[in-house]
Amino acid sequence: MAQKPRVAIFDFTGCEGCELNQLNFEDQLLDILAHVDIVEWREAMDDRPGEYDIAFVEGSLSTPDCIKRIHEIRRRAKVLVAVGACAVQGGINGMKNIRPIEQVREEVYGEDKYLFPTLPALPLRAVVKVDHEVRGCPMTQIEFLKVFTALVMGKEPIEPTSSVCTECKLKENECVFTKGMICLGPVTRAGCDAHCPTFGQYCTGCRGLVPEPNLEGMKEILVEHGLSVQEAWKRLQLYNAVELEGVRS
Ligand code: SF4
Ligand code: SF4
Ligand code: SF4
């Protein structure tokens, strides 16, 4: 019998919400374990260092030790998958990059700041090659399983490149702009089936930006609906501050 793919799961700076979602695979866990060997997972088992076929990695990189560790993981993994907004695009951690890092260290650690060598937060792809991404904050089990199944079957997972608006229109949702809400759907990457607008809420952009986001077009929609461009920019930074570095609001 062919050897099962060896899978390892790692975390960096994040809330571990994506990993908890992986631990909660109650119905599918036995199926998953039948197809792969999980060889490393700090949250669920003791360390068993070695090489692995697929590494799933949560969290952004925000210390010198993170940078060292992600290089080591990359060296040992055939395929590396970034899991969740923090790992894929820097996520909420990226907001610390908006201000000078010294100021952030001072505010968080006070006089102990020299004990904590924190760096501006980075997504994994800023430091190592990332083969695939599972987006969202937190990542959803459905999407994780799609990528996981494709990789175990030796196929290429397909990542959506259109916007949340595309999925929202297909679901025939009423656009929340008409209710006076600022929605980031026009510039946010699809894949969640327009989860928030489907429940009458605005999109906060957790899945990251579409390739080549039309930020000028987004501004025009906001102005057309009498909504604040400044407020929209602040919301956009919540999950996408790293990608927006250097872009003028
Ligand atoms: S993406 Fe969200 S849920 Fe996942 S680790 Fe980051 S903050 Fe937590
Ligand atoms: S509610 Fe949001 S995602 Fe849906 S069409 Fe309007 S702007 Fe796009
Ligand atoms: S609608 Fe937006 S905020 Fe909600 S899950 Fe989808 S990408 Fe994330």
Identify the quaternary structure here: single chain
Which CATH top level class of the largest domain fits?
Alpha Beta
**Ligand kinds:** iron/sulfur cluster
Find the CATH superfamily of the largest domain: NADH:ubiquinone oxidoreductase-like, 20kDa subunit
Q: Give me the side-by-side strand order of the main sheet.
A: 2-1-3-4-5
Major β-sheet profile: 5 strands, parallel
Give the number of helices. 10
Proportion of helical residues: 25-40%
Unreliable spans? none
Structure class: alpha/beta
Walkthrough of the structure:
- The chain contains ten helices and five strands; from the N terminus they run βααββαβααβααααα.
- The protein has helices spanning 17-23, 29-35, 64-76, 85-89, 101-109, 141-152, 164-170, 195-198, 215-224, 229-240, and strands at 6-11, 37-41, 52-58, 77-83, 132-134.
- With 249 residues, it is an alpha/beta fold.
- The model has no long low-confidence stretch (mean pLDDT 91).
- The protein has a five-stranded parallel β-sheet.
- It folds into two domains: 6-152, Rossmann fold (3-Layer(aba) Sandwich), CATH 3.40.50.700; 164-240, no CATH class.
- It is globular, with a radius of gyration of 19 Å.
- β3 (52-58), α3 and β4 form a beta-alpha-beta unit.
- One iron/sulfur cluster binds next to α7.
- One iron/sulfur cluster (SF4) binds next to α8.
